[in-house]
Amino acid sequence: MNEHDDAELFARLRSMWSDVDPVPAFLIDRMIAAVATDSLSEEYALLTIVERPLSEVRGEADALTLQFSDGTTSILLHVTSTANGRRRVDGWVDTAAAEIMLTQGDAVRTTAPSETGRFVFDDVPPGLTRVRLSTRIGDDVRTLSTPQFEL
């Protein structure tokens, strides 16, 4: 057999399978949609943070509410300024969380939410912040990490 025979054999196989089991008409469109929405949950988390004008984050606003989601787990953060110029972060998660971490540079604070999913970080200095939520279901450990945002 030479390359020409191989090409002819493959062409006949392709033709046979096209007749016996053709590609469903909707398959190509569904695959394009699946690939296009693959990172949609990360994009949604980024869009949720910029839903409000950033001037409110750095401005004179008394409170800021942020919501992040990866499609299966959501976290809601309510940030208020305290009298000493620091921040209080009240949060709620909609899943059983093992640990919640608030990081600012090298500083890390951890807490565990209550049975209702509520948690609090008191006396947080202003600055770039990220919140990470770890959940454990059996042996499976999942992490939802927010983009950095400024308190």
How would you describe this structure to a colleague?
By secondary structure, this protein is an alpha+beta fold. 28% of the residues lie in helices and 38% in strands. It contains 4 helices and 9 strands; from the N terminus they run H-H-H-H-E-E-E-E-E-E-E-E-E. Strands 4, 5, 7, 8 and 9 form a 5-stranded antiparallel sheet that branches. A 4-stranded antiparallel sheet has the order 1-2-3-6. It is elongated. The termini are far apart. The relative contact order is 0.13. About 7% of the residues have low confidence.
Strand and helix map with partners:
Blueprint: H1 3-20, H2 27-36, H3 40-49, H4 54-58, E1 63-69, E2 74-81, E3 87-93, E4 99-104, E5 107-111, E6 118-124, E7 128-137, E8 140-145, E9 149-150
Antiparallel strand pairs: 1-2, 2-3, 3-6, 4-5, 4-7, 7-8, 7-9
